[in-house]
Batch of 2 targets.
Target 1
Amino acid sequence: MKKLSSMLGVDFRRMMTSPLYYIMVGISLVMPVLILVMTTMMDGTVTVDPQTGVETVMEGFDNVWQIIGSVSGNSQSMSMGLTSMCNINLLFFVMSVFVCLFVGDDFRSGYVKNLFTVRAKKGDYVLSKTIACFFAGASMLVAFFVGAMFGGAIAGLPFTLDGVTAGNICLCLLAKIALVAIFVAIYILASVIAKQKLWLSLLLSMGIGMLMFMMIPLVTPLNAGLMHVLLSAVGGVLFSFGIGFGSKVILAKTSLV
Amino acid sequence: MNAIEISNLTKNYGEKQALAGLQMTVPVGAIYGFIGENGCGKSTTEKIICGLIHPTSGSIKLFGKDYTDAAVRSSIGVLIESPGCFPALTVWNNLMIQATNLSLPNKADAVREVLTLVRMEGAAGNKYKNCSLGMKQRVGIAMALLGQPKLLVLDEPINGLDADGMRIMREILVDVARKGTTVLISSHILGELEKVATHYGIMRHGKMVVEMTADELERSCPTFVALQTKDLATTKTVLEKQYKQVLTDEQQEFLRVYDAESAESVVKYLYAQGIIVTALKTDKIGLEEYYINLMARKEGK
């Protein structure tokens, strides 16, 4: 337990003293502002294809919370339009970049040599990385949420939505935060498989992440209740332990350098 | 007791055998110079000792215990290939990270102590990526020294260092060994290694060819008479009539006679043949030459 807390201390110290974390949180904060303001500016703009003559009407967001999620039962929840693609769920991909860089740095810098020579437990390492990256992922989601409110205010979009209360929105965000554990565990697994090869860890993360991506809007609707949060949390814990065990086995069975 | 005892260690990478039944003994308190050509298995051995890769078979004991023993493993300091530092962090933060990993009670004091030991007190605030190669190697040594390890494993720590950097590294190693730490150091810079090592192990093709102390090396290295004349070629022909082992040195400046009784006898012989010796010295072959000769013998040259 002492070793785990030491390792957690190291991971948080590293995270807080290197620019990567702040850059990622900064991107998460700015991204919704840009998305909301730009799509609102372009809302209703008609573009005509000069060759075919087909007209395309740009559609913006009708509501601030649309960028956080969609109401379950709403057909838009599975649509592939701009407003349904450019939302908070994009962060689950951005997180993969953070996790792959953060964990991959351990291998590229040779830090794992120092760490595992002095007999750090592989399970502690995976758990510590999962907790640290979960914290980072959660901060990115919160930053995006804050950015969405700023962006919405700047773009002049409405903050009220029929059938959705402030409590629902908070629960929706909490459910998404709980899901971060699953994605982080996947990205850590990809990183320990790829070790020094950043391109491989990113490729694996994006590939596996893509398969899981469609699950996010289904499990975390904007009108989420406690059950959604509970399900996401249980899923997050179970998946992260299961996938984390896989990462531990890979670390134990393969060469670390 | 020995710090490291390796017996019948093998490591296969698919079809390729990196270690083929390695036997190795490093006494406690030794500075063990680990020598061998590239790809002979030195780094593989060091990585296995540090638990970074798994051996195919064989046994490794560190201080009498299995190398996987947690207590033993926590007393190893390591610098393999490059120091495991994060480029964007300062030297101080990198060392604090390792001090935290080791759960040291007084982290800041421990970091200050190792920084003093490697003569880097003034560079603690520098970002690691801005350090020179010599400084980076010293940070690596400092990191390895945190927690006062009983065994220090260093893989090519003096590669790329300038003369001053090598001198500092030498002083650090002697300091560390004086305090009772066993040092396993691999290097291709044999001249430097010779200045600090108390023991040697020479590897070839995944096996130990010879292990010896510095004294044994000293006794194994033959003395020779080196001389200069105005015409080295003629002198060599004349000397070869009297002596069996006459060679010209690498710089083509001196003739070396390995089987002469004394320098005086060589000078007298040449004088009798009408050749005047313009410079004369007696010397011993060093580690580098010993190693080259040994490898040549093993290859049957």
Target 2
Amino acid sequence: MTEPVLKVSNYNVDFWVDGTWYPAAIDMNYEVMPGKTLAIVGESGSGKSSSSMGLMGLLASNARTSGTVEVKGIDMLSASPNTVRKFRGKEVAYIFQEPMTALNPVYTIGFQIVETLRVHFPMGPVAAKARAVELLTLVDIPNPAESFDKYPHQLSGGQKQRAMIAVALACDPALLIADEPTTALDVTVQAEILDLMRELRTKLNSGILLITHDMGVVADMADEILVMKDGVTVEHDTADNIFNRPKHPYTQQLLAAVPKLGSAPSRTAISSENARPVLSLKDVTIEYPKRGRQPAFQAAKNISFEIYPGEILGLVGESGSGKTTIGRASIGLLPIKEGSIEVSGIDLSSGSSKALREARSHTGMVFQDPASSLNPRLPIGESIGEPLFLAKVAKGEELAHRIEDLLDQVELPRSYRNRYPHELSGGQRQRVGIARALALNPDILIADEPTSALDVSIQARFLDLLQELQESLKFACLFISHDIAVVEILAHRIAVMQHGRLVEVGDRDQILRSPKDPYTQMLLAAVPVPDPAQQKLRREARNAARS
Amino acid sequence: MAKRNASVEVSTEKNENEIALRETEGLSQGQIIFRRFVRHKAAMISLIVLVSIILFAFTASGIHLGSEQNPITIPGWWHFSITDIDPEGAILATCNDGVTGCPTLDLVPSFIDGTGMQIGAHPWGTDQIGTDYFALVTRGAEQSIMVMLIVGLLGVFIGTVVGAVAGFFGGIVDAILMRVTDVFLVTPTIVIGAVIGFRFGNLGVVPLALMLGFFAWMGLARFVRIEFLTLREREFVDAARIAGASNRRIIFKHILPNAIGVIIVSGTLLMSGAILIETALSYLGFGVRAPDVSLGTLISQYQDSFSVSPWLFWWPGAFIVSIALCINFIGDGLRDAFDPRQKRRITLKDRLKARELKVKA
């Protein structure tokens, strides 16, 4: 019988906040076998990340841990700091969420791999370099020998994550702790990284502890699943049982909240024959001007589409495809180089401030990150009321009433108006964002990845709310997202972008069921589905299509 | 399913907030900041102490403005002025083996040392020739406070405006303003001060302070510019622009409150620095000119007599320390009032004292 690489028993993590120990993980018990993957899933704040950071003593000074964490039979929590340090990197390696911040920008990736190697093994620089190049080959980085001397900023997001994995694998660790390894990546890149991790698991026979909130990724990778809520393990079972026969109500609720590609009820397209479009783009080209030595960059080329009253157009694409650029240009935040954009019949391409002001009073925008889009020093009531105040629609007593109505509309208590953004949760902040965008009763709402910072169950509530509001207020909406499953729920029509070009526009069902463009097909194939059996079939089909 | 949960949660939220509903009256940013400042104990105490010091110093010595030729003077309530010399009084107050001019202030009641509580002719002592030190110190404090406030406020104002405009608009505006800042920066302060002192020193302390303030804003402008460069890229600036806010509103209402920490920290440093610059200039003979005094000149003038007549050092020193401390605490209070998030460090004692929060597993 094989020994587990990681055995966690009666493990607790607490955080000190204002004179009280708040538990982040309570009485956890699990084992990770070599060559197997245990996935810890849960929403933000469930303690999945802090419990795994605590395994190797990587928590901040206001945390404490108790219980036993045995790696190869040695308890990490009672071992001396020196012993734990020897285990870090050698026996237990971490892959972090953000490859951009986890790699040191002032050293080459080669240096960072060599550093790990030479800390743990008596190795000369030449031998270490040879081993590093070997590792870079293992993780499929193009031209490993040349990439050895590259700095992190010279690599793409996926390549950075590959380099990060190479650093983690440098010492053939027995256990790999992957904390949201693909959250910052595009779906197609995510599929490649997951393939790589699966391949390495069989090749090196390491155990993987996968921490993620993405049920699709879990379905793709995990053998066993542990579901956490508020620090408590609510369910621990095999992947098959969790997905097909979940016992705990929270697990059922979590699975129900995950948008599943191809499961939304069919939707009739809005008839658009007689109506005038609220937003129309004709051959729009947007260029970021030359900056120092960086040449000018065309972020969007020859984009044309229209949105009619009451219609939701989903704009999908990977990062860098120019979808946010289109959203920002539609509200006049970016100048247009060629072509024209009309909002409610007002031409934005002239760039005159009068036209802009006029157009903006017909437009609302919901931003990606609610933490950054609300002024941290402004109480939310003022943030919501600002468009009304500046458009001179209301002030004083009447403004206060309008703010209360808007808060009611997005189902937030009126007393929240004096709160600061940091006193609200992510989902509540995004509701504030909607309230502000709807303050002036806009004809069109531009939503730029409004759910990407939210947990699935909050995302589900947010999407419900957005749909209800859209049905009652009948505004048109440009919904920008990288998550095709979310777009499927909302959109009447879908537009797909790649490298600044519009690849395909069409009715939702046509795009999802019978995509014409090969890029759209690839994008749809890469989306992980939260169902292990179905995901296995999809993965095999994708690999077959690729080879 | 998700929808039902939402409504359940909202209704519980509503119940919880029944009490909170009483405070739903809409407060503006300014009102909330004011309330938070008033709640900051150290800042409020410091504000009271600083105002008392200012009132005390200004009323005791009177107000002296204008140049040497045409002084504008409002007399204070203290019966000695800085030019009155009282050698007999100094000799009467002899103590410690013949040191003249000891403080006559005695706060110890008679049942302890037998002399009884009294103020005496020269409560804070006199200098060697018999000038009343109470008059000198209150006059010095008045001059130093004026220099400090004028330099501080003017420096903060110019620095903030230049930094904000440069950082917000960027491009050519930024380049021009920053080159101007560089020109100001590379000129040594002491040389500028000497020229200013030589030209304006005889006009009294206010023109001197104004000119010093005009040359004290560069560091602050740079800090503010950097803050603006990062803050203007944040999404809430775009959100404000979409809401129809003008550039002026974005700068002052949206970005400036977020940069207030930097402004206050450098502003308080600037104010304490102003006292030192004024002292240095006075020491060189370009600042406040005799017979007029400032706290700085008092300390530098009597630095040799520390071992025999230490009170010549204590009183101006105590004023400088308490004024600087008050300014710093008020700055702290302002920064905390503007910053809705406050962090504090956790000590080992905190860790041991902490309560356990039991959660059912």
